[in-house]
Amino acid sequence: MSRLSVSVSGFHGNAERAVDVESAQPDLRMSWFSASLLIVANMMGTGVLSLPYALSQLGWVPYFVLFAVFSTGAAISGITYSRLYENRKSDWVVIADAGFEAYGRMGSFFVQHVAYVYLGGCTIIYNVTAQDALAQTFKGYGIMPCDWLWGVVVAATVALVVQCRSSSSVPWWIAAIGVLTILGPCIAIVVYVLMTPPENPVPTELFAQDATMVHRGVAVMDIIFAFAGQIMFTEFLTDMNDSRQFPKSVGTSTALMAVSYSAVAAICYARMGPAAFADGAAVTSHIENDTLLRILNALLAVHVMIAEIIEVNVLTRGIAHSLGVDVSSGLKTTQADGVHSDRKSAPDSLPSFSKSTAAAGKSSGPASDANEGGGSLCRGAVAWLVISSLVCLGAFVISALVPFFSALMGLVSALAAVAQTYTIPLALAMKLLPMRPHTWWLCAVLVVVSILLAIAGTVASAADIVSQFSASPPFSC
Q: Fewer CB within a 10 Å sphere, N or C end of the chain?
């Protein structure tokens, strides 16, 4: 997901605070067009880089049939989230609030942890992508004896930058850089491929003949991943000046992504042939012009490192929140992470920051408040350092153990993207939206289908990862 995950609303503390902001600053709310751009920034990213591989493993007909199904399904999913938001019976700020209203504590718990698995998986994918991009950028200079050592550079850089602990919205220029550093390479790739005729043209296939069922399963998951990122939709809806126009935002953004994805996948596959993508690497690794290859991979490295910084920020806050650790001290506001609910009715297993707030309230007098504030600031900084460093370390270790771009993306898609795009909105709609009996049963059948799809995708992606270990063992040079 792709993706550059940008939270417009920052890290909301509670629904009441969000309503206050809306009434105090109505002119700062998002229009439907701004929401469209933000959806593209949030969802379009590394997923597009694996689509030529997916097309090569499926062939023209199966690929574009499935592409039409999943892109339409993603659009319907976004519209469903909008309908759920408009029919809510309580204030929603993050997606866990919807889970709680529909299914209580278990619903909130499930939705939150699907979101965390997705964000954690994206962090690992970003680490793999940035590692490979830096290795391609500096290939031939002898800087690193092993490619996986670039993963250390990525993890260390992210861990250092994320210590800023920004709790406000991501600056617009950061989002702009993130979008340009993925759109730029995509446009450059398409132009380069069109202007560079292949020396030995290889015929493409309507139906892929040599692909295994495992690789086809991974390809299907890669298509789903390219349209995932709905965990942020509740926050987008909260920050719109007219949330009823969100379906227009979803339709516009989905159409833009579908056109961009189709252009990259179709042109690269048609010009380069199926064999070019057999290794499952990102399309940026298949450019033969050395100078362009280095420039594209440098831009890609910047894009995914920005995205990883944002994801690590959200994950660190969420993990600390779940553990009951206060990392908010010293920040401008005490707020929840982008997917966790601070509702008083949230599960006991996922406590809020209220304990630290209450403890701070016991002090009396200016001197006591100053001492407590200084100690709290130090403890918050140390807690943030430890948790964020462990998140970065975990992302590096897993990316070094499983440095397989498309297979890893397929696994994350199966474990979380399918659930957030299809299973969760369908299950919420069955509980919260008025519908006729036959519609309810249709949703129930689709929920079962989405679960089976996730299981099949998990098995296929795991099998693909295992099969690649023999050719590329962990930490190999």
A: C
> Which among 338, 164, 144, 314 is positioned nearest to 239, based on CA atoms?
338
**The tokens of 338 are what?**
């982008």
CA distance 313 to 391: 10
107-116, 118-127, 297-306, 321-330: range with lowest mean pLDDT: 321-330
How far is the C-alpha of 247 from the C-alpha of 256, rounded, in Å? 14
- Rounded Cα distance between 301 and 288, Å, is 18
Distances (CA, A) of 79 to 237, 249, 254, 340, 375: 11, 9, 11, 22, 47
Which has the closest alpha carbon to 373: 355, 351, 352, 356? 356
pTM score:
0.77
Q: Is 263 exposed, middle or buried (CB count within 10 Å of its CB: 0-12, 13-18, 19+)?
A: middle
The owner of tokens 């943030």 is 384
Bigger pLDDT: 11 vs 91? 91
Write out pLDDT tens, residues 105-158.
Answer: 999 999 988 988 998 998 998 898 899 889 989 988 888 878 888 989 999 999
Nearest partner of 281 among 416, 409, 121, judged by Cα: 409
Cα Rg, the chain, nearest whole Å: 22
Domains of the chain in start order, with CATH, are: 15-469 (1.20.1740.10)
For the record, the structure tokens of 108 come out as: 């909130």
Tokens of residue 24, six digits: 């105090």
Q: Nearest 5 degrees, angle CA 333-CA 311-CA 337?
A: 35
Evaluate whether 164 touches 384 at the Cβ level (below 8 Å).
Answer: no
d(C-alpha 99, C-alpha 368), whole Å = 41
Instruction: Answer whether 325's CB lies under 8 Å from 387's CB.
Output: yes
Please count the CA atoms within 13 angstroms of the CA of 147 that sit on its side-chain side.
Answer: 24
